[in-house]
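Input sequence (195 aa), recorded before submission:
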Amino acid sequence: MKNLDNKGFSLVELIIVIAIMATLTGIVGVNYSKYIMKAKRMADVNNAVTIRDALYAAVIDGRIVVDRTKSEPKGNGIWIIVAKDYNSLPGGYNAWKFKNTTCFCGTNNCIVVDGVASGNWDVWDENIAGILKEVGIDPYTIRVNAYNDWDWYVVQVNFTKDGKFESYGIYSGYKGKDSSYEKHNTKDSLIENYL
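Predicted structure, token format:
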């Protein structure tokens, strides 16, 4: 006679439950990593927009002006480059120019910030870094978060040779690629797709 009081799970039932749990874990894991990458991508976009807005506000408020006696014929600009690490910098830059950070604050030598003239294009501009700090962006610790999407991104404010505000831009690129505004191909810039 069979004992019908057995209250355990059969081996088949246990294997089915484990298979269902493994499938659900796989689905959740893939979706979780997509959400994490999307959040990192949006963190970069939000930082870039915050930097752009802070620089633009400083231009509108008259804190950033162009010394027309030093103006360059092609135009003038301010740029912030944010990289993911020292090995992912755009062409023409090295860790020394970045002051051993993953951010570079640069200007043409005709830019004046809060009454202080800037240095050369390849010299860290502490006054621009100060504007970033005012809006909660620490130029000494900021870095690219979306490491699979781009190696660096640039926020740039452009002025005409007459010193008038012309435009601003946000674009991204990969290690060793030229980061100059004139040579940048926006088809290669992924960050612009998320603005």
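Checked by second reader. The chain has two helices and seven strands.
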